[in-house]
Write a structure and sequence with these properties.
With 322 residues, the chain is of the alpha/beta class. The protein contains 10 helices and 14 strands. The chain folds into 2 domains: 2-168, Thiolase/Chalcone synthase (Peroxisomal Thiolase, Chain A, domain 1); 172-316, Peroxisomal Thiolase, Chain A, domain 1 (3-Layer(aba) Sandwich). The strands form 4 sheets. The protein has a 5-stranded mixed β-sheet, with helices on both faces. A 5-stranded mixed β-sheet has the order 8-14-13-11-12, with helices on both faces. It has a two-stranded antiparallel sheet with strand order 2-3. A hairpin with a 1-residue loop joins strand 13 (298-305) and strand 14 (307-316). Bound molecules: coenzyme A.
Length: 322
């Protein structure tokens, strides 16, 4: 016994920033960004906060699930960029939706949603939960260096959410962590201690793009095979691949290596970019709302990010479109 997906939700900031917009602030152009990443535009916070966007995603997932908030047993939020260090975004969402259950945030960078699914699985398996809300929300626009063309073009802001209920649709899940500060890191805010004698790094994302690319490609291929094996299915039995939207070239390279039809890979990178841990639940919700999935479909969710962390899960879709 683990869980089934009862509802999905997502929200994106209203402001859309195109590649041409970016070419006015850094030395780049639409052709380079599209060709090297697959991104045309992304949504960026302007007069909203990431808390506002997370509220919208949570509200939508709860509405889609038709579950009463009083029946939620836990709220897990994955984020690296919420509006407050404390209270957690999960506690803030708890107040917004009027729930009374425990709530906490986790940090596993872009893999946060898969880590949250694994935590949820354990709550269901131990009999400690019947319904869990997961929200993944990230405001990467707060932590990219807007003068650095190799990183600022890659990311967007947004939030995705799911309500999970007791069920048996998680067929396999796998997480990995491998400590590495050199490939991707975001230094924390440094404060203004008059006693600190250390050099203060600015709180911007630092990434070795090429190393990240290699790590991501290897992780997607290996983790897909591993979770398929754990679930006792063939990779060809997977109906849809919902893969972290970091670079379309990473996704296409993995698709070719696994020799799977490209139509099985669902993407929104063109219009959303990389929204860190929000990426997978946003894409899941967009496809759910489009009616892409039918009951019985097998989905693999695949992500990777700073840590270095990776995670993959195979779920069976049981939900009928509302
Ligand atoms: C970042 C990334 C798009 C860069 O693409 P790339 O093909 O590796 O490009 P390189 O970094 O080798 O740069 C090639 C050239 O383009 C330039 N360039 C970098 N960003 C540019 C931009 N936005 N516009 C124009 N030129 C750019 C570089 O300066 C370099 O110029 P040079 O050859 O004169 O030195 C790619 O490495 C990538 O997607 N990596 C993975 C990132 C990722 O997954 N991050 C999320 C982790 S969760």
């Amino acid at each position: 016994m683990n869980f089934t997906v009862a509802g999905t939700g997502s929200a994106l900031p209203k402001k859309v920033i195109t590649n041409d917009d970016l070419s006015k602030i850094v030395d780049t152009d639409d052709e380079w960004i599209k060709k090297r990443t697959g991104i045309s535009s992304r949504h960026i916070l302007s007069d909203e906060t990431i808390t506002d966007i997370a509220f919208m995603a949570a509200d939508a997932a709860i509405a889609d699930s038709k579950i009463d908030v009083a029946d939620l047993d836990l709220i897990i939020v994955s984020t690296v960029s919420s509006d407050y260090l404390t209270p957690s975004l999960a506690c803030i969402i708890q107040g917004h939706i009027g729930a009374t259950c425990p709530a906490f945030d986790i940090s596993a960078a872009c893999t946060g949603f898969i880590y949250a699914l694994d935590i949820a699985k354990n709550y269901f398996q131990s009999g400690n939960a019947k319904n869990i809300l997961i929200v993944s929300a990230d405001a990467m626009s707060r932590i990219v260096d807007w003068t650095h063309r190799s990183t600022c073009v890659l990311f967007g802001d947004g939030a995705g959410a799911v309500v999970l209920s007791k069920g048996s649709d998680l067929l396999a899940i796998k997480l990995t962590s491998e400590s590495n500060l050199d490939i991707i890191s975001i230094p924390h805010v440094t404060g203004n201690s008059p006693f600190s004698e250390l050099k203060k790094d600015l709180s911007y994302i630092k990434m070795d793009g090429r190393e990240t690319y290699k790590f991501a490609f290897a992780a997607i291929c290996k983790n897909t095979n591993d979770v398929a094996q754990l679930a006792g299915i063939d990779v060809n039995d997977i109906d849809y691949f919902i893969t972290h939207q970091a670079n379309i070239r990473i996704i296409e390279a993995a698709q070719q290596r696994m020799n799977v039809p490209i139509e099985k890979f669902l993407n929104n990178i063109d219009s959303a970019g990389n929204t860190s841990s929000a990426t997978i639940p946003i894409l899941l919700d967009q496809e759910n709302k489009k009616g892409t999935f039918k009951p019985g479909d097998i989905l693999v969710l695949n992500s990777f990010g700073a840590g270095l962390t990776t995670g993959a899960a195979i779920i069976r879709w049981s939900k009928t479109t509302n």
